[in-house]
Amino acid sequence: MQGRIRSGRTKAERRAALLAGYRPLPGARDEFVDAEGAVRPHWEPFLQEWCALSQDELLQRFGLADRHVHDTGVSYRVHGDIDERDPSAGERPWPLSHVPLVIPGAEWQTIAAGVAQRAQLLSTLLDDIYGPGEIVAKDLLPAAVVSGSPDYLRPLHGAPGGGTLQLYAADLGRGPDGRWWVLQDRAQAPSGTGYALENRLALTRAFPDMFRSMNIERLAAFFQSFRAGLVARSKRIEPRICLLTPGPLNESYFEQAYLARYLGFLLVEGGDLLMREGRVHVRTIAGLKRADVIWRRIDGDFADPLELNAQSALGVAGLVEAVREGNVHIANGLGSGVVEARALMGFLPAVARQLLGEELILPNIATWWCGQRREREAVLDRLDEMSIAPAFRSAGGGLDTGPVLAGDLPAAEREALRARIAARGMDYVGQEIVRLSTMPVFQNGRLEPHPMTLRVFAAATPDGWKVMPGGFCRISDEPDARAVSLRNGVRSSDVWVTADAPVEPLTLLPTPDRIAIRRITGTLPSRAADNLFWLGRYLERCEATLRLVRALLGRLIDSDPAPGRSGTVRRLGDLLVAWGSAQRGRSQSPATQAYSALYSLDDYGSAAASVREARRTASVIRERLSVDAWRLFGDLQSQLTPKEGRKPSEGEAYEIADRALKTLAAFSGLSQENMVRGAGWRFLDIGRRLERGVGTCRFARQFAENDASVDSLDALLDLTDSQITYRSRYLLGASLQPVLDLVMLDPYNPRSVAFQIERLEAEIADLPSLTEDGMLEAPRRLILRLAADCRTAEASRLDRTSILLFEQLLMGISSAIADRYFLQNSGPEGSRLTGIA
């Protein structure tokens, strides 16, 4: 690649274009160039590779990375940006910067040693805080710094692992002198490991040759060590590890679902867990299953509404009791957030000398806690030179948005802040304003310097603390390099740690001699089963609406209408209205009804609304869906979003419905061919079969009356995708009884009601039973009765009443499945402990 000339420009010319105008910001260190503007040696291999690519080739590589982000659905959510009707609506694409931060291996060793030391220090301090309390007793730490923190959880005092650290993150910034400083500690529920991994995957897709030639350290070993650390905390050889998420409305829910899938953990919400007999269990379709380790992503005080925050709807009642009894390991420990307090930072150097006998390798940003008179006065004397921040999380003090530069505040606000600090100093800290280093960002065809911070992760393992060889950067779009300005950083990038020799590829797969062969992927939580069931129903409902729209528009644009066509068109429109897909009224022409059924989000039965609900449901079980499946949801939403400024013609709308049906067929093929035939697939398929059976019954009641016209029967064959089968069997046109037999009773037709019933019978028979008395449970009883009725039915005796009975029995089976297997069931079967494991 190097040395070649492309697009008429030499490498030297491309280099000059990339670096044109690149200058470090005043008073800040730059990661890319030195004070004289010369490119730092460890960046040269990167720059050489880039300069071998033309502008068009660079943009093409960026497109590969961006498509990876889009196709895999990498997203985040801004706090407060929530639409409860559609959790996916507030998701924003992950803001990937295409230039990684390059750090030489020798320098990284110092960073890694400092982060590991700090993780060990905070872990030891937590043991002391929730144990003997010697640090406070020796006056190395004011008691108010501990007890005044809302993250100090008194019920955990003395509990085993009350504040144990399993995963730690440090936000670092480099000052003008070249030293790295700790800006903030993350010990509550550190986020970002999944995003770091996705940044890596995106940029290695864009620059695979560069990644290999620069000998970049891999990340897989870190995740392998982290998983091993969690397994070591369990009392069982093969523990059940759960990732406890606040749910799909959380800012980093994508990451949580992604990590659960990547690490093989069970993604659960608080409602999925239940405390019984001193142990925590997962509610599954097969009963309660023991949870051994819980990696929590909710704040500690929200974890148990019984002993902690009574208003929490995210936790598990009794969880603290299970922790006290040592029956479950929580990572991080429920009280670990206490060491995140900025008030603590000024005391850590002395605490490190006491607990570790060492000086800190990575110093804190200079911090003064205003709960002490001398420090408070020092802060007030130098207020204009300080960054003022909350001393504790959620401690109030008028700084809900985070740190502020007091000198930048209007005079009235600055004096009000001064008065609050003087009146209640314990709520505030003053911190030195550090100018952050800058790194290159590709913008406007060249590289530009932007301020950045670095988040580095450490995991507790059986072999000590392991530090991720990388992490991720937060990059600001603002030119202000002061540390406080990065709280709203809007880009992220990968961190490349270089090695002197080629790096051996690693994988999360264990060595062959340690693989325990299994054919079942694990327990299926009731919540996941519920959402898979409804995902199948929503997708099938969308398909039925699209078929109605296509049948209606096809008849409107037909230049040679068949006899009875107007009656069929009216019936199709009426069914769209009954379906909740369109409105009735004089102004609602059939074409208008078809457009509404395609696009309207206000009509709950429209194709667009069904896709929205399907995507909402899928977002809750994202960890169980492949990238290809998620991409198809995006395609469907794009196809069913109207283009601004113009209304499609009837022919164009017909093609839109047809393309959307093909996308749905692709999803169906994906689920049929790629999903393992486990319980998850079974509930997805049950949902589809029930919805298809109900829909076909409704079609038959509408179009197969005794006096039905040939065109109405043709419409029924169109809607059930049975035209070709019918014509291959019967030489004459559509006739009532053969059509009814084909769409209702023929077990060989995959679109018939009989076929759906046969599939349901087989699927329900494979579902787990909680009873041991030999009696059939409700779903099994109902499907056997329906299957017998269907097998003995005759087309000549079918009428609207008997078809309606089939439909009602199918709906009854749906309710019975929900009552038996899903979380909303509070009856006796749902509370049994049969099958606890």
Q: End-to-end span in angstroms? A: 57 Å
Mean pLDDT: 88
Count of alpha and pi helical runs: 27
Low-confidence stretches: 1-7, 825-837
Main β-sheet description: 8 strands, mixed
- The level of helicity is 40-55%
Domain DUF403: 524-822
Organism: Bosea spartocytisi
Pfam families: Alpha-E (PF04168), CP_ATPgrasp_2 (PF14403)
Domain Circularly permuted ATP-grasp type: 100-475
Overview of the molecule:
It is built from 27 helices and 21 strands. With 837 residues, the chain is α+β, with helices and mostly antiparallel strands. Strands 3, 4, 5, 17, 18, 19, 20 and 21 form an eight-stranded mixed sheet that branches. A four-stranded parallel sheet has the order 7-6-11-12, covered by helices on one side. The protein has a four-stranded antiparallel sheet with strand order 13-16-14-15, with helices on one face. α21 (679-703) runs antiparallel to α25 (753-765). Residues 1-7 and 825-837 have low confidence and may be disordered.
Name the features.
ATP-dep_Glu-Cys_Ligase-2; Circularly permuted type 2 ATP-grasp protein; 837 residues; alpha+beta; eight-stranded mixed beta sheet; four-stranded parallel beta sheet; 3 domains; globular; Dna Ligase, domain 1; disordered N terminus; 12% strand
